[in-house]
Amino acid sequence: MANLTSNFVGIKSPNPFWLASAPPTDKKYNVERAYEAGWGGVVWKTLGSEGPPVVNVSGPRYGAIWGADRRLLGLNNIELITDRPLEVNIQEIKEVKRKWRDRALIISLMVPCDEDSWKDILKRIEDTEADGVELNFGCPHGMAERGMGSAVGQVPEYIEMVTRWVKKHSRMPCIVKLTPNITDVRKPAEAAKRGGADAVSLINTINSITSVNLDAFSPEPMIDGKGTHGGYCGPAVKPIAMNMVAEIARNPETHGLPISGIGGITTWRDAAEFMALGAGNVQVCTAAMTYGFKVVQEMISGLSQYLDDKGMALTDLVGKATPNVTDWQFLNLNYTTKAQISQDDCIKCGRCYAACEDTSHQAIAMSADRTFTVKDDECVACNLCVNVCPVENCITMVEKPKGWLDPRTDRPVGDYANWTTHPNNPSARAAE
Amino acid sequence: MTNSPLTPGVVAGRLSPQAIAANFHDHEAPLDRHEAHVAADRCYFCHDAPCMTACPTSIDIPLFIRQIATGTPEAAAKTIFAQNILGGMCARVCPTETLCEEACVRETAEGKPVEIGRLQRFATDTLMAKGVHPFARAKATGKKVAVVGAGPAGLSAAHRLAMKGHEVVVFDARPKAGGLNEFGLAAYKTTNGFAQAEVDWLLKIGGIRIETGKALGRDLSLADLQKHYDAVFLSIGLAGVNALRAPGEDKANVRPAVEFISELRQSGNLSSLPVGRDVVVIGGGMTAVDAAVQSKLLGAENVTIVYRRGQEKMAASGYEQEHATSAGVRIVTHAAPVAVHGNGAVTEIEFAYTEDTAQGLKQTGETFRLKADTVLKAIGQTLTGAPEGLALDGGKIAVDATGRTSIAGVWAGGDCATGGEDLTVTAVAEGRNAAEDIHASLMT
Ligand SMILES: Cc1cc2nc3c(=O)[nH]c(=O)nc-3n(C[C@H](O)[C@H](O)[C@H](O)COP(=O)(O)OP(=O)(O)OC[C@H]3O[C@@H](n4cnc5c(N)ncnc54)[C@H](O)[C@@H]3O)c2cc1C
Ligand SMILES: Cc1cc2nc3c(=O)[nH]c(=O)nc-3n(C[C@H](O)[C@H](O)[C@H](O)COP(=O)(O)O)c2cc1C
Ligand code: SF4
Ligand code: SF4
Ligand code: SF4
Q1: pLDDT, tens only, B428-438
Q2: CA B347, CA A50: separation in Å to the nearest integer?
Q3: Partners of residue A70 in chain B, C-beta under 8 Å
Q4: Which CATH number fits domain B33-128: 1.10.1060.10, 1.10.3490.10, 1.10.10.10, 3.30.70.250?
Q5: Where in this chain does the record put each Dihydroprymidine dehydrogenase domain (chain B) (predicted)?
């Protein structure tokens, strides 16, 4: 069994799976049960300033979208930061950390955007023995209207300023949690780095409306006939989150800045993908909220089996795919594949045919007895048929060797050549 | 209760009324909303879907299942009824395992097809429970069409013709409309008076008059109908039954299975319906299975189906054979009846073993006897009462692809006519297609 021990910005945990700051980490009871189930660490549900706690709605706070068999694909919430008194949270954090020394415990923070507020809260948590702080610059609803959360996370200058305050007033490792509700995630990450952040974590939730009640004509979740945008998370956001992680990992300005990957992680494979793109560890929320704390056990066994099979250490995995994330202009335009249908596996549903015939390149033939075959002279290898086929691996993309005559272009497969040197590229010619 | 499965002879009340009620309860429970959604999620929305090709009425199955999945079962029902106005009955009685579900790609993929029949029932039940009829009649054409036989073929034709704006009169020899929907299908497939409720719902389209107790050849003649109507559609089913041609066939309690089934379907109180202790059913089709299973469900101790060829040749599907054996029916194959024994009433029936030879089926000479106080003959129904002058083919009224007979202005469909299997859904398809052709020819 592979060693999953993780060291993220000096914070040790028995595995790289942390629970993200959210309801699963809201209180001692939850966190202890999460540790018992095997979670390597938790980021405690975001704490606010001293004073009367925030108040949540008393109606539904979640909305969702589902796939087949009502599998939860996306969750949306309008919950705020912790609604429990600061004192209670701090007391519980102390108790938990004292009892679970081998586990990571990070405190998430969100206070008004002035130095005194940050100085004060950092002082309040100083003697909790927590392993680090995470700055919640991501919450996209409610708190943002009060000038916190994503209202800060959307302005790189504020991120830099607040991070600087935190580093000035605390010796704890500081993780800056980024919002995806921006146009270019590299800017806030660069700002965090300039401010002295030890790491960034991403993504927080995405602005979203998951459904509209077509009787009451209100967004859902609906509170007394009205709704507001919520924060979107769960499997549906994983592709967006992974791109953002990769953007930061390969950006020369932030390359090497540790990343805690978050967003839709549900299985060991999701976690491994985030790590391959450059995340040093991962955080999980929706998967735990959907299936309970036990899901971590599959993540642990799956990731160790994978590392064993590959003969890799956990640290070898981190960033292994980052060098292969590139710009479109550098993709090899001479690389040629063709779709191939395995007749043994085909169940003759015709979905590949409908997709290709109606919406793509008319490259699949359908015979009277429903045999489906790819026409090499039409197939552009777009992969749509592979994606719509209900049988996994029934359609595969077969790579064609150099020199193979492509019947679609009547040209042999050539050497690597990308857009920057392509004859159809006006700037390529100009550059010559 | 004085009688039990062991009581000798043909008697009623072998089981408690509660047991009988439970036995004749809906044999496949309807899907609830949640189950329907789970089942609908499995459909792949296939291109040129094989299930649709396999359905004799070509219902757009992927579309109606998607409509269920998106929470609009009423729209799904309309998709179904547009092709098959008896979609409710077909959902209950179609041998889906040899039709749509056999062709479903998920049968190929996992050996578990999408539950098309049960989904169809969910959709049609939902709409019918609202009591609405989803179609309206076109402007009156002033044309009149006579339909003879109010079974599925006749009802389907009548509905389509009425929808096109024609006036339709349906004649039937029996006292009730519905044909074998009312008198033939297994009771546990169509519970709670569904057959009559479906007829009433179908008639909501308007423009259809049903005249029961009117038999062609007795109360009506084809010539008269041709004189008073612009077109005639014959859908008289197969009213006759084949004989065993074995000595002793005339003994008491040797009877056609369809007669027993019809009595059962019309009985208001199954506890008062007599059934034998030792029942032997001869035949290998759906009728044999239904007669045997329902005898067992009424409390017969021993029920045996005897079929003269091998099990693989039985017309009843594998699913139905299993249904029979799981109900406790024994299936004996390769045995042909040679004599019925008994003094007045049957007590035993004698069979000769058979074997398949190059010259066809041959008796081996070896015989055996089965104890029997009831023998039900289910060796096929035959056409009776077809009007003189109509060309026949293999014992059925010869028709072309659109149902035209050898006499101009006369169409035929369903069991009485050539083409297709003898199934409810095939009858519906043929009635609908003939109606379309009648309409086309009346309007030119
Ligand atoms: C016991 C049994 C079980 C069956 N189970 C199934 C099943 O589970 N699934 C399935 O798909 N199919 C089943 N079938 C077959 C199915 O019932 C028939 O294929 C279908 O009913 C044929 O429809 P039809 O309209 O052609 O004829 P019918 O349903 O037979 O209707 C013919 C109508 O014509 C009337 N008629 C007859 N002669 C005259 C006349 N001279 N004048 C006026 N009216 C006349 C009759 O009274 C009857 O109402 C079963 C059949 C039987 C016998
Ligand atoms: C109900 C709910 C409340 C959340 N509250 C917080 C919070 O207080 N602080 C925070 O930093 N993130 C919060 N998040 C965001 C999550 O920590 C996480 O970034 C996001 O859900 C994406 O991960 P996932 O796809 O694994 O759920 C919350 C998410 C949910 C669903
Ligand atoms: S999940 Fe629990 S708290 Fe939430 S609505 Fe359901 S029962 Fe209530
Ligand atoms: S989508 Fe896949 S299973 Fe369906 S016909 Fe095409 S190759 Fe066959
Ligand atoms: S064949 Fe099966 S999966 Fe395909 S459309 Fe028909 S029911 Fe759906």
Answers
A1: 999 999 999 99
A2: 96
A3: 37-38, 41
A4: 1.10.1060.10
A5: 22-131
Among protein residues, the one whose CA lies closest to atom 15 of ligand 2: A204
Average predicted confidence (pLDDT) for chain B: 96
Token duo for residue B198:
């479906």
Main-chain dihedrals φ then ψ at residue B219, nearest 5 degrees: -100, -15
**Chain A residue with Cα closest to B110:** A347
CATH class of the domain whose range is A6-324 = alpha beta
Count of other CB atoms within 10 angstroms of residue B283: 24
Ligand 1 atom nearest B431 alpha carbon: 25
Mutate to test the pocket of ligand 4, among A352, A364, A385 (most ligand atoms within 8 A of CB): A352
Question: Residues B97, B101, B105, B109: what is their CA dihedral angle, to the nearest 10 degrees?
Answer: -50
CA distances from B43 to A89, B67, B132 (A): 49, 11, 28
Quick one: angle between helices A186-195 and A238-250, nearest 10?
A: 50
For residue B345, the SS3 value is strand
Q: Chain A window 359-388: which residues touch B at a Cβ cutoff of 8 Å?
A: 366, 370
Name the fold adopted by A328-421. Alpha-Beta Plaits (3.30.70)
Beta bridge partners of A200: A176, A259
Mean pLDDT for the stretch of residues A158-162: 95
Pair of tokens at residue B172: 């039937």
How many CB atoms sit inside 10 A of residue A323's CB? 9
CA distance B63 to B76: 7
Instruction: Give A351 to chain B, closest Cα distance, Å.
Output: 6
Distance between CA B343 and CA A278 in Å, rounded? 93
Q: Whose CA is nearest to atom 8 of ligand 4?
A: A346
Q: CA nearest A356: which of A389, A321, A316?
A: A389
Token pair 């921006």: residue: A182
Rounded to whole angstroms, the Cα distance separating B218 from B134 reads: 37
Across the interface, whether the CB atoms of B45 and A351 are under 8 A apart is answered yes
Q: How many angstroms separate the Cα of B5 from the Cα of each of A31, B15, B25, B331? A: 65, 7, 20, 19
Amino acid at site B86: L
Q: Over 90: is that where the pLDDT of A1 sits?
A: no
Count of other CB atoms within 10 angstroms of residue A292: 13
Find out whether A234 and A286 touch, Cβ atoms under 8 Å.
Answer: yes
Place A431 in a pLDDT band, splitting at 50, 70 and 90: very low
d(CA B158, CA B141): 14
CATH number for the domain formed by residue range(s) B144-239+383-442: 3.50.50.60
> Is there a contact between A219 and A232 (Cβ–Cβ < 8 Å)?
no
Token readout for B83 is: 């092709």
Half-sphere exposure of A142 (CA within 13 A, CB side): 18
Q: In 3-state terms, chain B is what percent helix, strand and coil (to 5)?
A: 40, 20, 45
Give the torsion through C-alpha atoms of B172, B174, B178, B181, to 10 deg: -140
pLDDT digits (tens, 9 = 90+) for B385-424: 999 999 999 999 999 999 999 999 999 999 999 999 999 9
What is the C-alpha to C-alpha distance for residues B62 and B68, in angstroms, rounded to an integer? 10
A80 CA to centre of own chain: 20
Whether residue A247 has pLDDT greater than 70 = yes
Q: What is the pTM of this model?
A: 0.86
State how far the Cα of A248 lies from the Cα of B324, in Å rounded to an integer.
67
Tokens of residue B251, six digits: 């003994």
